[in-house]
Automatic annotation (TrEMBL):
It comes from candidate division WWE3 bacterium GW2011_GWB1_47_11. It comes from the Bacteria. The lineage of its organism: Bacteria, Katanobacteria. Keywords: Membrane, Transmembrane, Transmembrane helix. This is YdbS-like PH domain-containing protein. The chain crosses the membrane at residues 37-58, 70-95. Residues 93-172 form the YdbS-like PH domain. InterPro entries: YdbS-like_PH.
């Protein structure tokens, strides 16, 4: 369920799926791309404990400065903020998916919790598929961008930071070739 690269996923569907349409590939950004916000979340979780340890080390009388109910309310809001930060980043990663079916490609983008943008193009409209892998992390962990240029209304689909971009490019290119030359 938390895969970034699913080939022929079982029991998977999406809104707008046509009858007889088969999902061949479901992609998300590579898991490694989540490390930045996970690191920030860990810092947010640990900050109150480090702050308390520093105050204890300095022998500061925190009860004279901060009343316990104030500290409790501050900690409650701090951890609610941290939970919201983690929740929003996870939801954005989990629900931003790229789907390749036997008929079309679909790009589902969620921004925040309340906004989504879904773009699609039939395989017949695909004109060019390229991939880019740049940087040490992308080379080591084998992820990058796949750019699909189409003749449709949306001229370009950018599958950002997906695993095995050369393989994704090959799969889409093969599907387009099969569509054009059955």
């Amino acid at each position: 369920m938390l895969n970034s690269f699913w080939r022929y996923p079982k029991n998977t569907w999406f809104d707008g799926e046509d009858h007889g349409e088969e999902i061949l590939l479901v992609l998300r950004r590579h898991l490694i791309t989540n490390l930045d916000w996970i690191f920030v979340a860990i810092l947010l979780i640990l900050t109150p404990f480090f702050a308390n340890a520093i105050l204890v080390f300095l022998n500061a009388d925190t009860h004279a400065v901060f009343a316990p109910p104030f500290v409790f309310i501050f900690m409650l809001f701090w951890f609610l903020f941290t939970f919201g930060f983690v929740f929003e980043n996870f939801i954005n990663w989990f629900f931003n998916v790229y789907i390749v079916t036997n008929k079309r490609i679909v790009d589902m983008d969620f921004h925040g919790i309340l906004f989504r943008n879904i773009s699609e193009a039939t395989l017949a409209n695909v004109e060019d598929v390229t991939h880019t892998v740049s940087g040490t992390l992308q080379v080591v962990f084998n992820y990058g961008d796949v750019i699909v240029q189409t003749a449709g209304e949306q001229r370009e689909f950018d599958f950002e930071s997906v695993p095995s971009p050369a393989r994704v490019q090959d799969i889409i290119s093969d599907l387009v070739a099969q569509r054009r030359h059955p």
